[in-house]
Amino acid sequence: MEEIWDQLVAYRTQHREVSIKELFKSDSGRFSAFSCSLEDMLFDYSKTSIDKESLKLLLCLAEESTLQQRRDAMFSGERINTTEQRSVLHTALRNRSNNPVYVAGRDVMPGINSTLAKMASFAEGIRAGDIRSASGSTFTDVVNIGIGGSDLGPSMSTLALAPFHDGPRTYFVSNVDGAHITDTLKDLNPVRTLIVVASKTFTTIETMTNARTALRWMRKELGEYAGSHFVALSSAHDRTDEFGIPSDRVFGFEDWVGGRYSVWGPIGLSLMLAIGSEKFSEFLQGAFEMDNHFRTTPFEHNMPVLLGLVGVWHHNICDYSSRAVLPYDQRLSRFSAYLQQLDMESNGKRVDLNGMGLRRFSGPIVWGEPGTNGQHAFYQLIHQGTEVVPCEFLVAANGFEANLSEHHELLLSNCLAQSEALMCGRSLEDVRLLLAEQGIEDPDGNLVAHRVFPGNRPSITLVYRKLTPSTLGRLIALYEHRVFVEGCLWNINSFDQWGVELGKQLASELLPLIKAGDGSQSKDGSTAGLLRTLDLLRRDVTV
User: Fold this and answer.
1) Helix, strand or coil for residue 446?
2) Within a 13 Å sphere around the CA of 451, how many CA atoms are in the beta-carbon half?
3) Looking at 159-168, 340-349, 437-446, which range is the least confident one?
């Protein structure tokens, strides 16, 4: 396998002067050859520097890696999360075939189906007004309290599927900063508000701090009945009992569902409350279709595999350190943030499965914003900066606002224009001609230099008919599997996250020092100095 890595680097070195435009000139069928589809979703990677020979090498890399074996092991319930000795079965939550999935010899599908049915019964009861508040009122507002995967997945998905909302209004609180929960609760009526607390262990400090604040807010109005306005997405029944949440409002999930992969089960309850159980089933169905595609389609036509190979080509072979995810859809405005956790928490690793230091870079920096806002912000750097940033455009052929079709047509034209501009650029000669046509004199050539676009900057584009629940399901599953593919090629564990532990531990050590105003000398000079400064400022003493 190392030999193929070397061949890829050598091939790139030999052909780096061949531009993407030249690849199109030499191959009239390039678009068809470098794109693939699933249902109404098309993945175009023809605007990259990958050609037939480099694609062949990349596919060989995938074939010689452990990708196929680890993919099959994941779906079959084997413990591929080796550092925590856990299975990885978020895919089982959306297993619409209902074929058995075994963990340690036990079929987990009956339990999953039972939980989904319980969720659906509860969600439809709330939506229909059959399940009411302590005062007998219907619930009009839902506040989901979580953080990380317990927030990013459901909040992103709920926003993305806004056209399908026909249930209670839904809000999300994640930040332990008191401003977040204060600003969320201040205009809500506790009598008609349901609080969903999402924490598998029911110990996540940010989530539980916000949950206790919400409980105090609820008790002011409802007293001893406050607990009946809470739902727990947790497997820690002893802690949810202690909190006062009725057992029939606790929805648990197993340790083989990681937080950033958990929107498909109980963590998705807020989404189900917003769009209904039927639309939530369509969401699961879309993801299931992508799962089947990933499991059964040959690598050369396999969308998650090809997306992963493009990522590896850009990051490891072309040495591009980041990727920009640019959805041309306002309702996907949280998608880039969602992918930051999915990708960077999964593949931000420095050792391989055997604990050995990696020989090449793992996960890239993932960032982005929705178009067209980004065009008036960071696209300057993307087009003319010294760093090459591969761009990933996402766009629907159709919007939901039929009476505003000119808006969507303008959105589409902007999306296509950006990928074209990145590839084609604008040459020195083109700029000179343009200035001449505009009657602008530039005797020293200074203005010309500023208006040249280098071009030859790669991008991919995902196009789909409309952002429906099933489309969103396919889209999220696609990126989940892309992360898995890249992790397999780097030989890392994409399903643990030890990197978040140290900061948590140190925060718990610092909290009593903050409360006591202790500028402890047991800390490093900077931290001790900051502790003293904070204590002075908190006591309104001039620093």
Assistant:
1) helix
2) 14
3) 437-446
| Annotated catalytic residue, options 206, 289, 345, 369 | 345
**What beta strand segments (E) does 225-370 contain?**
230-233, 250-251, 322-327, 365-367
For 310-334, what is each residue's pLDDT tens digit? 999 999 999 999 999 999 999 999 9
Q: What is the 3-state secondary structure (H, E, C) of 364-382?
A: CEEECCCCCHHHHCCHHHH
Tell me the torsion sign for CA atoms 224, 225, 228, 231: negative
C-alpha distances (whole Å) from 42 to each of 32, 64, 394 are 11, 27, 10
Tokens 């002067």 appear where? 17
Give 151-195 as a 3 state SS string: HHHHHHHHHHCHHHCCCCEEEEECCCCHHHHHHHHCCCCHHHEEE
Which of 20, 16, 4 has the alpha carbon at shortest distance from 420?
A: 20
Cis peptide before 240 (omega within 30 of 0): no
Q: Count Cβ atoms below 10 Å from residue 15 Cβ, excluding itself.
A: 13
Between the two ends of the chain, the Cα-to-Cα distance in Å is 59
Per-residue model confidence (pLDDT) at position 98: 87
Whether 84 sits among the annotated catalytic residues: the reply is: no
Which pLDDT belongs to residue 124?
A: 98
Q: How far is CA 304 from CA 153, 297, 308, 425, 477, in A?
A: 19, 10, 6, 29, 9
In whole angstroms, how far apart are CA 179 and each of 183, 298, 534? 6, 50, 19
Helix (DSSP H) and strand (DSSP E) numbers for the chain: 22, 13
* Contact call for residues 454 and 423 (beta carbons, < 8 A): no
For residue 67, give the nearest of 487, 426, 517, 452 by alpha carbon.
Answer: 487
Do residues 144 and 154 touch, judged by C-beta distance below 8 A? yes
User: Which of 22, 450, 504, 509 does the annotation list as catalytic?
Assistant: 504
The residue ranges of DSSP E strands in 18-168, in sequence order, are 35-38, 41-44, 102-103, 106-107, 141-145
376 is catalytic: yes
Per-residue tokens: 379: 């696209």
Q: What is the rounded average pLDDT of the residues 142-166? A: 97
The one catalytic residue in 2, 376, 441, 515 is 376
At 453, the amino acid letter reads: F
Q: How far is CA 536 from CA 132, 177, 515, 541, in A?
A: 49, 20, 12, 5
Q: How far is CA 336 from CA 162, 329, 345, in A?
A: 17, 12, 14
pLDDT at position 496 is: 96
Cα separation values, 234 from 204, 208, 215, 429, 470, Å: 11, 12, 17, 63, 26
pLDDT at position 466 over 90: yes
pLDDT value at 521 more than 80: no
DSSP 8-state symbol, 340: I
**Known catalytic membership, residue 345:** yes
Query: In this structure, are residues 341 and 260 in contact, taking their beta carbons and an 8 Å threshold?
Result: yes
Higher pLDDT, 521 or 61: 61
What residues have CB less than 8 Å from 417, skipping those under 6 apart? none
398-408: burial string, b at 16+ Cβ within 10 Å, e else: ebeeeeeeeeb
